[in-house]
Amino acid sequence: xxxxxxxxxxxxxxxxxxxxxxxxxxxxxxxxxxxxxxxxxxxxxxxxxxxxxxxxxxxxxxxxxxxxxxxxxxxxxxxxxxxxxxxxxxxxxxxxxxxxxxxxxxxxxxxxxxxxxxxxxxxxxxxxxxxxxxxxxxxxxxxxxxxxxxxxxxxxxxxxxxxxxxxxxxxxxxxxxxxxxxxxxxxxxxxxxxxxxxxxxxxxxxxxxxxxxxxxxxxxxxxxxxxxxxxxxxxxxxxxxxxxxxxxxxxxxxxxxxxxxxxxxxxxxxxxxxxxxxxxxxxxxxxxxxxxxxxxx
Length: 297
Hints:
Elements: H1 22-36, H2 44-47, H3 54-60, H4 64-78, H5 82-86, H6 98-107, E1 115-125, E2 129-140, E3 143-154, E4 157-168, H7 172-175, H8 185-210, H9 216-224, E5 227-234, E6 240-248, E7 252-255, E8 263-268, H10 270-288
Antiparallel strand pairs: 1-2, 2-3, 3-4, 5-6, 5-8, 7-8
């Protein structure tokens, strides 16, 4: 019995077309956020290819004379030499209670520190002066302590405008690492919001790539990648901050300083919302536009 092959025209069933599923986008967004936060476990891994670690890079960008002044003031505090500390203080900090304040600060140091490490340093320069903020971490056998200084330099004279001592239960490095364990409702809600916003934006971005819109597609792709009205979540403390006059791209970002907390930035994806509201209209305009053939001479 002869067997023949006939060409059969397959028709696409509209009900079986592949469409992006929200579960896929949410999973993809979760993976992206996880990849972005991998440095929370070992941030030094980002710096090793450049020959640095956090300690060496921070030391390179910290004014050494200001760091030495801060460490020297703490040493004077531990030795009870309060008069020498007062000589470095700004006039606004000197009052009748300054001795008692320094004495209470000295009592917070339980013993001789095991190690001293600079965990934060920043400098703000103006026309005739500069202001350096330095945070020192002191490690003891049963705890840690932060000593924070604000040092102003004007015409070569250094003045301490701020001096604070704060005991902490664990090191700054451990405190500010990215982890899902032992977090509160604020952090988990922020993480869910970030995943939803990123999923929504990726969904709109892929739809725009697949849409037939002509040259307008590139402009819409840029708009989809931008949002406004920023919410910022401090992952360590769970605090939220709102910045209404802010534009950001992409709509979800995570960043941290060398030893600081992870910050999650989330904005309203206005570009993605506008595209999804207008994509059918845009596609219809392209389909309705006449195709002009080149004139034959």
